[in-house]
Design brief:
The complex is a heterodimer of chains A (about 500) and B (about 325). Chain A is mainly alpha-helical and about 500 residues long. Chain A contains 20 helices and two strands. The longest helix of chain A has about 30 residues. Classes of the chains: A mainly alpha (about 500), B mainly alpha (about 325). Chain A: It is a multi-pass membrane protein.
Chain lengths: ~500, ~325
Amino acid sequence: MLSQLPLLPVLLPLLGAPACALLRRPLAAWVFSCAVSVLALAAAIALLAATWQQGVLSYALGGWAAPWGIEYRIDLLNALVLLLVSAMGAAVLLGARASVWREIPEHKRTLFFVAYLLCLAGLLGIAATGDAFNLFVFLEISSLATYALVATGRDRRALVAAYNYLVMGTIGATFILIGIGFVYMLTGTLNMADLAQRLPAVGQSRTAFAAYAFIVVGVCLKLALFPLHLWLPGAYTRAPSIVTVFLAATATKVALYVLIRFSFTVFQVEYSILALPLETVFVVLGVVAVFAGSLVAVFEPDLKRGLAYSSVAQVGYMVIGVGLGTVAGLQASLIHLFNHAIMKGTLFMALAAVVLRLGGSTYAQMQGVGRSMPITTACLLLGGLSLIGVPGTAGFISKWYLVTAAADREQWLLVLLILAGSLLTAVYIWRLVETAYLAPRQSPASIAPRALEAPAGLLAVLVVLALANIYFGLDTRLPVQTAGGAANGLLAAVLP
Amino acid sequence: MLCLLVATAIALIAVRGLLASIMLTSVYGLLSASFFVTMDAVDVAFTEAAVGAGVSPLLLLLTVAIVGRREAASNARRLVVPLLLVTVTGALLIIGTLDMPSFGSPDAPAQTHVAPRYLQQSGDEIGIPNVVTSVLASYRAYDTLGEVLVIFTAGVAVLLALAPAGQGGSARAEPPAPEHLAPHTILQVVSKLLIPFMLLFAFYVQFHGEYGPGGGFQAGVIFASGIILYGLLYGLPTVCRVIPPPVVEVLAAVGALIYGLTGVLSLLAGKNFLDYSALAADPVTGQHIGIIAIELGVGIAVAAVIITIYYAFAGRLHTRED
């Protein structure tokens, strides 16, 4: 079975989804989905270990060698993203029961878990494949499932949010498909490794330029890079709490992976005339995203929506790392990819608990929540500190590597801007502290009577996620070394 | 043909009534299908004719029947930025095609790198005459599995969005209501003659996919079109008695699972996922068995999902009329 390892993390949820649809009882569907996602996580862990030991693993689907057949090609980068997505997928699902039972009507619950597994399978498939068209197919699976999940949100505005996301996402996917079509026209192959070999010969052509432009714009729509982020706040705010946790922790991360994979492995932009302007574009858009996202988050009356804007800002940090175009920059970007999933996982999971008990997540509703839900609020705060980048948390490691990478390139202005961005984060996290702990309790009628902690299942997952923020702030080996290895691998082909 | 396509597209944008634009969408679908035929892509043409010209305009019509046929007036000033974006995209597309090898050129990279092996070896390696089927069902079978799951996801998404409450997760139609529309006698008689042939043709396309154009996708949409036509003329309750919605929903999952489990069988036989040569002693026979099995899965899944989507839309309209 070891030789099948690269396939397993994707195959389990992919076939688990239709099997789950055959289960009529929602509880059975939930238990089944949990089992599938935990098994997928176990496979992803084994896969990362195998990649460390044996280097790049290749798996020929259908037994046909690439480029004739489809290849799964797992290097450290793939393995890291697979681990992250499957871990968050399993964790969120394990804690999901109470929240799903509260927010999703009974007749939709089974299908909800089917869609969740499909979304998970799609994201994992994108992260595992070594074939450009196969990537698009799995992108479609994950996107369609995501639109459906967002649309199950409680009020009807979820439908509008899902529709906006659908329109933007479909444009993005179409752009990616056009780009892939162009590179196929140029090279006659769809395999990424094969593309990487054959593209430099035609890399100066206008078609290659157009192909890369289409792919970058398409992926950035999915990534919600400023100014293509307009779908994100609505989708994150209106989606069911559990869906928001899952999307915030995985979807944009996978999009960033795709951006990195196409830029550095397939197109090797360092070689082409694109290198300089593109780096500038990424750094500038990243910085603008950090400030625009954070500023909106500061003034947003609803914490869930505020954190959604904060995600726009955090994507900015990751893209700055990509734009630096160095090994250190890429490493910082990947570390932040990993850590941000944990931070936002914690924060949105805590909000899922808050919404479950208080019915909403506006600052007004959360007055004094620190007293009625002490554990949840502590986790929320821990996630917030990590988001700011306080030493001892995972967020600090992210910021540290990003600042160091920028300093290496002697971009002092950029260093300053990154630090200023953190200050803005501190502003809206402070607002949370004020609301949760310092604000006087409102008149008893306006707050939910005796709001208690969330059920044990949700709370346990939340505490584990919150502690992960501290763990990865102290023991940084997993993200830092894997990201370092992955970044070296990405740039080994292009750097002397 | 291309001029007609462009003309239809422009008319589609210019026309204001939703009903007219749906009809034009259907015309566009039919034109695209004919265009695909002239490009020798008959497999794609089949699907486009059934889905692009038939099923999707029908779903749009059902939607319009629910939401009304007038478009809200849009503000012309706000169109400047979108226009600019569209222009840039169009320009980029044209730039992209400037260095394109001329159509059908034998020296084009698409013809010289991967394709020759498909053309020259697939006869020996897979042993069926239709190379398109060889590529879709074996060389790139995993993509096709992905596509089936995309279609399955679409079905799940529609059910999640449209499932009425309190009916056990399915868009089940109400018990047969008295028909308040005059029966379309002529259409019913004609369709009674037509539908058996449509269904028969679907089976022909399904099982002939190895030798001629066709396969599970095409067969699935043709079969579903036949059922939908029946539903349109005899009413939703009647067709729901022929094929109950819960059965269709289960079939959608079963179709996807048949495909997936064929792959798992080769895993269990010690080969890679979807390596059909593990399914029989002789690799070429194994390929045959595998392709027939997965095409069956594709056909079932596609037909079931399209019928499910139709039920969900028509069910909405039906509850509204009552």
